[in-house]
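User: I've been going back and forth on whether these two constructs are worth ordering. Before I decide, could you fold them both?

Assistant: Sure. I'll take them in the order you sent them. The first construct and its structure tokens:
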Amino acid sequence: MLLKIWRVEQTCLFELVWNEAHTLSAKLIYPETLTTLYQTWKNTYLQFYRSTLRARPGLVLNLEEPEIDWRTRLVQAEATFLAEFHYWVNSAELLEIRRQITRSKTSTLYLRCDSPEIVKLPWESWQIGSEFGSGQPIHVIRTSVALCAEQAKPVRRTRNRILVILGDETGLNFEAERAALQQLDHRTEISLVGWQPAIRTPELLQQIKTAIADPEGWDILFFAGHSNETALTGGELGIAPNTSILMSEIAPQLKTAQERGLQFAIFNSCNGLSIAELLIKLGLNQVVVMREPIRDDVAKDFLIHFLRYLSSHQDAQEATISACQFLKLEKNLTYPSAYLIPSLFSHPQAQPFRLFTPSWKTQLRRWKPKCREAIVLSLFAILSSWLPIQSALIDQRQLAQALYRQITRQGIQATAPSTLLIQINEESLQKDGIKLIEQNLDRRYLAKVIDRISQSESSVIGINYLLFRHQPSSDRIFAKSLQSATKSGKQIVFSATQDVQSYQAWVTALPEFTKFGSSGDMDLLGDPAFYARLIGDTSAQTEMLPFAYQVVRSCNPKALNRQNEHLYFHPITQFSALFGQTWLHPLVDFSIPPKQVYDAVPSWQYLQNRDNPNNEIVLVVPGGQLDAGVLPGEDYFSTPLAFKFWQPNATRKMSGGTIHAYLIHSLVAHRMILPIPDLWIIIIAAIAGKSTIILITQKKLNCKWFFIVPILYGLVSLQFYISSQVLIPFLLPTLTYLAFLAQLNLKPQSND
């Protein structure tokens, strides 16, 4: 379906042609305001993109440096211009044409314009069919006024051949183009020609002409550099500093290249309308150009994504549309109006260009897992999904990380901890003559500890005791101590827990206590408690921050930044919980030495010591086998192996207060460990193992060198844990990879 547009003075003639014999015509007055708005938009566009334009050498843009927000001005100018343009093309005079286009069920409308004012309009933004409720988008593709009767015929090659012409690099940088093109290297044969300081101009001109007319032919012609439109010569290309070549000068070579299979060209440079017209006239199937000046970084971004889409089996038309959509949706704030600049010209009868790829059946057959490989993959996938196995692997891994820290001396430097752990243990109660009241700590003793803390420079007091039971003889004294601590500038955080009778309610400290501070959920996850508490990980309707988070927020209200996604319950983690998994659930890092995490002191010693520690946070926690006010033993967890590595005399169980101290350290130091699920890396390891087998069998390589890969992977994994706070699983993925490689010894000549 072809739409032809002529402009005769102030009237535009529209003629729709379909099925070769059917036509529909309409007349429409051309509004001069559209030209005015176009010029306003273009001037604003040039002001915003006033540096590193890929215009021809010598083009001077007399643009001032106004102190105004040109980005906002450009967005406004674009909106006004497009609104007027869409109002014009959606006028009543064109209703029947629009209805016929929609009725034809086509996805592509070819557009031919004979007026410079008309051809420069953003026809690609015309949303045809939306007024009729059509769900299928109709894309506008431009075509030339003078079409060549003989189209380019694709030549069957083993690889696509691409000729890259890099022009004058003055003010530009082609490294991004080179890198993007190299990504196609495994599927294409790329030949590069361009200016070099040692090459003279006549020699460069001859090199370009010879390369274009190469006897083997090309599939794609790519140009990057400066260019501009010309009236009669099809445009000019800046091929060297102060040197241009006219398109008409290389037209014979381009025609020869077209006869030898050149189908597609992309000119990643400015003002390419006349270039596209000439190339389509010469017989190329498709050409991508920039209608207006284009800034260097925008041109790079467009090309990178265009080639990415092209290499992912999209044709030239789809890749152009996708790259423009990327600029519109992903880069609209950085590159406003940039999506309006690229245009695709095509012969209406030509098939869109697509990179040649081998048969998918051939490719898929090589990757089909054998029976033994499928069994190995299934076995390790099942093991990785079993939570006790996951916990054991984390325990062993953090032990390995602690050993690696000690060997490499990374992250174990002497630093002053921000947290002081005051442990109320049996020894303290005996020395101070304190007795338990109905298995609960006498709050008069707790009041003494609070009074002592009030004399220090600490700013936050965290009480890891569940103070929900009344002690008539002690509550008033304890409340008075809390009041004194609050008056001295201390922030107090009490412990709370979800009610076992109703998970929608909370068990908190007594109201006469909580009025002096805030509350945090003291519950922890797992045993050992490797998994960190997160914001939003409870099922209660009234959300409460975990205890450690509330302590840190009391210390620094800005610490729990919403931008730090590791602190919040991730949607992937929520999804995996539906089938009993903990994907991407952050971990507490027990591979750090305890002396860097907290200072610990028994309460009796703290009360007798007259020195005031300078820790910003003080946690009052139970020690030994004393309880925190919950069920006996509920606040004690298995001691991780990494913790025992640093403290060989540690008991089999550690208190929840110690874990809270580790979690506080993770929040303050921004060291929450993100574990990559074993299952994900096992799948990657299986793919790596299969690809290694394919590589070895195809290239006849010595397989023994590939058994070194797990060692290198292990070292990288250990270092990545420390450097990036990401736990990349090692054991199960390594066993998966080695199990795949082991087949090479069983059947070394197999090419299945």
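The second construct, handled the same way:
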Amino acid sequence: MNQKEKAAGVLRAPKAAIQKTDRAIIKRRPDPVNLPMLHAMQLAGLAPAKALELVPDGKLRRYRVDGDKAGSTNGWYVLHSHPVLAGAFGSWKTGESHNWHQADVTPPTPAERAAMQRHMQAAQAARVIEQDRVHGEARAKAERLWRMARPATNAHPYLERKRINAIGIRRLRDMLLIPARDAAGVLHTLQFIGADGAKRFLTGGRIAGCYFAMGRPADSLLLCEGYATGATLHQATGCAVAVAFNCGNLSAVARALRAKFPAVRIVVCADDDSRTPGNPGLTRAREAARAVGGFLAVPRFEGVSHG
């Protein structure tokens, strides 16, 4: 079981586990109130990038997730102190959310439980409103940048190094722009790829369930993680390809594609992360294939790394 699976559903942090919380994410003189929920964030892979004092005031607050680019605030949390310490946290970047409550307390009374439920419903409503606002701003910016950009040619260092073609993508200065659209074709965000291969997404954009499509499906549709892999597969097979951008998005995209193309044979092409504990590329690809009654493949590329 990986850390994400441990954190699924309602997260509880036992006292013994709290002692192992990464002290780098807790302020120098930690408030005991912060420790359990910070530990839960860490288990879910959503630890704050720097010291964070959680404020139990019931307000929706944002923070930068460890590993996200500097200046971004894709992480969010809300924490209530009454009738018991409880809250939720998640990421607008991945679309995930987790509920949490303090485990080592007297069980709440029915009235307290009802109050907790009201607090969480109010927080959920506020979260949806804020998420819609953030996503809307990102959509508008993505459309603006996409219009400013020009169709990319194969004369780009990243494409030349990967030995792939520019297929339906654009270029703005030295950056390649890969559009991420939902199944209805709405542009939600952009992935930027620099000449050195560095990748990043537009801040605040929706990624969950969005993908980049190459070609129109006939009998088969290949689903993979990265643009380079997708372009290579499309060039080699002539099949339609959907790029999910990361392994955590494979299942969501697979379900969206299955709903849009119910009769198409979906083949999930895994990145074999054999050197990474748990091999997330292969594990998530297998989950995605099972979720839609699809097939699993592990492509092998000679001489050039893809992604």
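Notes on the second construct follow. Helices lie at 3-6, 15-18, 34-43, 110-148, 157-162, 227-237, 250-260, 280-291. The longest strand covers residues 175-181.
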